[in-house]
Every structure is written in C-alpha cells, then in structure tokens.
Design brief:
Length: 488
C-alpha cells in the first residue's frame, strides 16, 4: 500500500515543473521539442509549455537558432501572435511558457472545406496585421501556412511557430536573405531561384497562398510531383474558382505576382477595397509583459486584480510578493508604495558597494525623492504630456508609452515608486521596450530634469515651511510678555 502511495506521489511530482506548473496532456512533438498543456498553479491559467532537449540542440548546432527564436518572440508582442510568457531552464531542458490557444490549427478548419468570404477575410486581415507588426520590427516569419495559424476561444487568429523566422541583422550586404526555407506549397518563386530574396515579399506571397486556400479549399499550386509543383510556382500558374469575386481575383493576382519588385506591399494590401471591408485596427498595449487589448482593459483588470500574479519577468517569488505588499490604500485615498528592506537595497547595487546606488545602470535608472507619491505621479504625467506619450497608472506604478513605431517597437518606460523611509521614496525607471538610444535621450532631456525640478521644488517648499514655523514660534514668544503683563 505504501509502495503504491509512493508511486502516485512520484508521478504527481514528475508532472510538476519548477513547483509552479502542472504538466498536462501532450499537444504535439517534433525532432527537438514537445509541447504540453500545463496549468499555472498560482493563477490557474492554462498555458502551453514547449520543452526543448538541450543535448539535441547542442548536437544539432541549434543554440543560436533557439536564442534567436526567444529574441524574436520577445520582440513581437501582438494580439494576433502567440505570446511567449517566460523562458526557464534546467541542466537538460529549456522550457518556453507560451499562450495556450485552444482552437487548434486553422488547417483543421480548412480541411473540412472552404470558408465563407467574410470569415476568410477576417482571418486574412488578422494575419496581415500580425505580419505588418513583425516586419516593422525587422522580423520575417518565412513559414506562413495554415498549420502555423492558430485560433483562440473567440475565433481570432494567432500566428505561431517563429522557428524559421529571420531578423534584419541576418541580411547580407546585398540587402537580401539567402537561406532556403519554408514549406514547398507556400514558398515564393524567388526563394526557389536561390538568388537572394526580400523577407517581407516572401511573407506576402505566403499570405496570398493562405488566402487562396481559405477561399478555395485547395492549393493554388499543386502537383503530386514536387518538381512539377515548383515549376508552376516559378511561372505563377494558378486559376481562381468561379465563386471568387473580381475584387478578390485582382488582389490575389497582386499577392501571387512572381516578380517581388511589382508584388503588392503590406501598406497597399491595407488600402485594398476587398481587404478594408469590415477591417478594424486593434488597439493594444503591453502590461506586465502581457498583451492587453484596449477594449478588454476593464475585463483584464477584473480577471487579474493583482498585476503581479502573472509576472513574466524572471523576478524571484520574493520580489513578486514584496511588490504586491502594501498596495492597498493607507487611509489617504492614495496607494502606499511597497517598502524596501536591506536585501532590496543591496540588490540594487553590484556586490556590497553602495556608492553607485542611485545611478543609472543600462536600461534602468533610480532617483531618490522626498516628494509625496501623488506629486511624483503628477510630474510623470506632465512629462508624458509634453512628449505625447500614453500614460497608464496602477497603484504606485506608471507606464509611459510612445506613439512612434521603431524597429524595436514604441519606446515603453515603466516607473515604480518604493518607500525607502517614511519621508523618502525611490523612483525606479526601466525601459520595457523600444530603442535604447531613444530611452537614454528621453531620460537625459525630459525625465531627469523634471524629477530634479520636483526635488528642488520640494526642497524649497520644506525650507519655506521651516521658516514659517520659526516665525510662528518667535511671534508667540514676543507675545508672551504682553500676555503676562495683562494677567491680574
């Protein structure tokens, strides 16, 4: 009986990952990895965990490939892209904790037959939105096909599997990619030619093939003989079924243009009449490393009342718990900042050298202030207004987000206020997204001067208060003799 109990206990432990995730059924597997459904024990949230065998990727020389995939998934956070929440590792395994998309592959839906035009258009619009977002950040998918397009509970499309993706820094001196990759039926003719290709144009071709499949229920270029199929792709030989509207035929002709120079671009696609029908640009922001739709903001806060339960960053559990302490109102109607203990202060500096405690370090900066939390938050809002940044507030945290899209996305800055002593606070500023040089310019020209000005204002205010109190005391002292004389 004891042996049976021990066996059950071992089995339960084997399903427990890092004490935080309970592994469930196998969702899929490949040569180097397998994907399991899992449950976050703290939040109860369902996730997909991709488990990669370290030994296999080392033998296959794929270390840089895995690093690139992590970097890309961190860079492309969008509502129509499967999210990477966290990366963990042991001596033998690497774990990608990812968004679990319940609806499965779009391929399974198309396998049952062609889709209605409005549904196909909606998926195409969402796919193009995601691809445009990737291209703006220098990321090219290079393997777009229905098997890599997933559907969530709401029937929304999510682009997945960035394993074959390339980034702009892989481009050779001629400005082109030269790696042969992709799935035969969806690959662009210029990739087959092996003369170098534009990653953006290759993705557009694949999107065209996907659109044809969604609307027709079969491939535009198909042959049991792969070489014969390649010849058809190379010549751009395809025929549209009779149920395709003239507008759709015209768009597909531009998408599946064998000449990448004259092939339609994404801005042109987004201006196309067939594409624009019912199209709505998604407004979203990233909070705690999670993509949040502006429309779902109220719902998001209802489900995630504690913004730290789902932290994606590699902060320790102690750090997460510390941040959530004292977030309730302290009687003044304002949230009280989390207090720092000695260990927190030491962790700010390298080793035990506290000399550079409040100096900038890479993508982080810290400032000490005697100003009230409300004044600091107001000052941050004032700075954001000057540079036309969007402001989001939650307890003692303020997120500032720029509107200018760069290769690395808009500049996003998180400021958090911690209590150092009852009269002093630390303002911790971190770059969460965007270009480092732009972040440094913003800190030096806008943020630093504004916080220094606030400190000077607070110092002057304290001096005035002190003088006022001294005057009050001296006045009462001068009044004492006259009051004494009037006594009977």
């Amino acid at each position: 009986m004891a042996e049976a109990a021990s066996t059950v206990s071992k089995k339960e432990n084997s399903n427990l990952l890092m004490g935080r995730f309970e592994l469930g059924k196998l969702l899929g597997h490949g040569t180097f990895a397998k994907v399991h459904h899992a449950r976050n024990l703290k939040t109860g949230e369902g996730v997909a965990i991709k488990i990669i065998n370290k030994e296999k990727i080392l033998k296959g020389g794929l270390v840089s490939h895995i690093k690139r995939e992590i970097s890309i998934l961190r860079r492309v956070r969008h509502p129509n892209i499967v999210q990477l929440f966290e990366v963990m590792a042991t001596k033998t395994k690497i774990y990608f904790v990812m968004e679990y998309v319940r609806g499965g592959e779009l391929f399974n839906k198309v396998a049952k037959g062609r889709l209605q035009e409005d549904i196909a258009r909606k998926y195409f619009q969402q796919m193009i939105s995601a691809v445009e977002f990737c291209h703006a950040r220098g990321v090219f998918h290079r393997d777009i096909k229905p098997e890599n397009l997933l559907l969530d509970d709401n029937g929304d499309l999510k682009v997945s599997d960035f394993g074959l993706s390339a980034v702009s820094d892989q481009i050779r001196q001629d400005g082109l990619f030269h790696t042969f990759c992709g799935t035969p039926a969806y690959v662009a003719p210029e990739v087959l030619a092996r003369k170098g290709y534009d990653g953006a144009k290759v993705d557009i071709w694949s999107c065209g093939v996907v659109l044809f499949v969604l609307m027709a229920g079969y491939l535009p270029f198909h042959d049991t003989n792969v070489m014969a199929m390649y010849k058809k792709i190379y010549k751009g030989q395809f025929r549209c079924p009779r149920w395709f509207s003239p507008e759709l035929v015209k768009l597909l002709t531009r998408l599946l243009d064998t000449n990448p120079q004259t092939r339609i671009s994404i801005p042109e696609i987004m201006e196309n009449r067939w594409f624009k029908k019912g199209f709505k640009q998604i407004k979203f922001y990233v909070e705690d490393d999670k993509v949040c739709s502006v429309d779902d903001k109220v719902q998001h806060h209802h489900h995630h009342h504690d913004g730290f339960d789902d932290d994606v960053t590699s902060d320790s559990e102690v750090e997460i718990r510390r941040r959530s302490v004292n977030s309730s109102n302290n009687g003044s109607g304002l949230p009280r900042p989390a207090s720092l203990n000695a260990f927190d202060i030491i962790s700010f500096s390298e080793g035990f050298d506290l000399s550079g405690l409040f100096e900038e370090k890479g993508d982080e900066a810290r400032f000490v202030s005697g100003a009230p939390v409300s004044k600091i938050i107001s000052k941050l809002e004032e700075v954001a207004q000057l540079v036309r940044f969007t402001v989001r507030k939650k307890d003692c945290r303020v997120s500032l987000e720029g509107s200018r899209e760069g290769v690395k996305g808009p500049l996003t800055i998180a400021a958090e206020i911690f209590e150092l002593t009852p009269s002093l606070v630390v303002v911790e500023v971190k770059k969460k997204g965007g270009d480092k040089a732009e972040y440094e310019r913003f800190c030096n020209s806008e943020l630093k001067p504004a916080l220094q000005k606030l400190m000077m204002e607070e110092s002057a205010s304290s001096s005035c208060q002190s003088e006022s109190q001294q005057h009050s005391l001296s006045d009462s002292a001068l009044d004492l003799p006259s009051d004494t004389e009037s006594l009977p």
